[in-house]
């Protein structure tokens, strides 16, 4: 059943890209779950490459490992956003320093390999009057 569901995701993704490709310059994978958690991310990137739509991926980076680093270096990926505010939701209870170190490994890996890849470390400012020990 799960294989059927994943195949259906590929069909729907392909159909959606076929329809939006003439209207879009790029696509963004983010919100409603971390794209790095998707079991078919590699396939989805290949489908996107077929339609020549550059991809921006926004991730918390908690799931970063060698395989996912390789996926983020896929030629169709033009930008990777690391959402640092997601550190507060870190299920692994890492220190902030350890978390940043893990993300920095990715920066080391892309040097000289994907100099065209834009990496954005995102940290939102709080609204006036809000306080957070994380964002001061």
Strand order of the largest sheet: 1-2-3-4
Count of extended strands = 4
Radius of gyration: 16 Å
List the total number of helices: 4
Sheet having the most strands: 4 strands, parallel
Task: Report the average pLDDT across residues.
Answer: 86
Shape: globular
Low-confidence regions: none
Q: What portion of residues is helical?
A: 25-40%
Tell me the strand percentage band: 5-15%
Structural class: alpha/beta
What does this structure look like?
By secondary structure, this protein is α/β, with parallel strands linked by helices. It is 38% helix and 15% strand. It is built from four helices and four strands; from the N terminus they run H-E-H-E-H-E-H-E. The protein has a four-stranded parallel β-sheet, with no helix packed on it. Helix 3 links the parallel strand 2 and strand 3. The longest helix has 19 residues, at 2-20. It is globular and about 45 Å long. The protein starts with a helix and ends in a 14-residue tail after the last strand. The relative contact order is 0.13. The model has no long low-confidence stretch (mean pLDDT 86).
